[in-house]
Amino acid sequence: MLELDRDVVIVGAGPAGLTAARELKKAGLSVAVLEARDRVGGRTWTETIDGAMLEIGGQWVSPDQTELLALLDELGLQTYPRYRDGESVYIGSDGQRTRYTGDGFPVGETTAAEMEKLTALLDSLAAEIGPAEPWAHPRARELDTISFHHWLRENSSDEEACNNIGLFIAGGMLTKPAHAFSALQAVLMAASAGSFSHLTDEDFILDKRVIGGMQQLSLLLAAELGDDVVLDSPVRTINWAPSSAGGTEENSAGHRVTAVSERATVNARFVIMAVPPNLYSRVSFNPPLPRRQHQMHQHQSLGLVIKVHAVYSSPFWRGDGLSGTCFGAGALVQEVYDNTNHEDPRGTLVGFVSDEKADAMFELSAEDRRRAILDSIAGFLGDKALEPEVYYESDWGSEEWTRGAYAASYDLGGLHRYGKDQHAPVGPIYWSCSDLAAEGYQHVDGAVRMGRQTAARIVAAADRAAVAPN
């Protein structure tokens, strides 16, 4: 068992925790990063499966993700554009398959007009409310107590339009049914990307990938930190001592908190919980967290999605004049993209099966699930999609230290009720993850932003303590 004394102990070696650690060390503070898994990267994970390099976790970079782009550049990591030449494929509510070009789905005039109306409404709300404090807006409670499903139908009677607009946030981002989260949560998702229009533009939101994989960001950050990162070390207990004044008492060495993991005990002045909110309860806090924290954390949960990887001897769809980009709100696999690796002669498709559709798939055997999913992809791209050389399903819902994907969101009514307190430290305990980000919410960019913001808050707190009178 390692016994360490540090200024800051960080729970979680994903992009948020590692970025925070790097910034804290730059500021002259000592750190230890405790990670439950046998690897760094959190919800980014690049792995070779049956000879194919796959992005099991988060992978895309969009132009607005300036913090991530700057860090990639600083680390010497290069990006390349997602393949997007050729026609896309849309399967409508009538089950008909249509090839198309351009930004809009090939739907009827009425449905197209309704989609434009809903998009304009969401763009307006996102601009008005913004990503930083959506809970503080005068309409926050109104929008947070109606589900996104019902909000859409309050504003349009066109079911295909509602389902298509819902796809971009429910299936494509929050990976929960649209009846399970609020309109305010949907607005936050849109505002965090700059607008709802950005979420509907796959050429924007899914612009580029990192050559060699997104996990490299965490691997390089961890390499800089060296022995300050301890793997295979789930934190079981955090002991901290509240003072009568509402702060925390320091012992003779200046420590205010002790984190006890399976491989290390770290005495520190501050602790950062750099894991998603659904995992906070995996740690026993002594004394317990305040009531407000207990309640808030129970209203945040991750969604569920199966990320499907299918690798072929060549990108056959390109020869058919197709981009590999496919949409169908009613299809089992609602989204498909060309996910071919940089300069790889093989072709890779990635598809997504979200929320209740994923529930249904997990009731099947692995063989039947594979057949159903590939049948759905073939409905877009033809029978050549039925026989990949490599097939793999990213199932983050079964990961012990994640338990869902892509990120946490509040249940109906939770965002306006608890959002103002989600960043509030409890004594020496700070919270930092992409799930709590404003810009870049639920993306690696948001994790980088949160890591930097949290580190800055702790540096400021340490400076204040240094000049405080005895």
TrEMBL record:
It comes from the Bacteria. It comes from Arthrobacter ginsengisoli. Residues 16-458 form the Amine oxidase domain. Its EC number is 1.4.3.10. This is Putrescine oxidase. GO terms for molecular function: putrescine oxidase activity. Its cofactor is FAD. Keywords: Oxidoreductase.
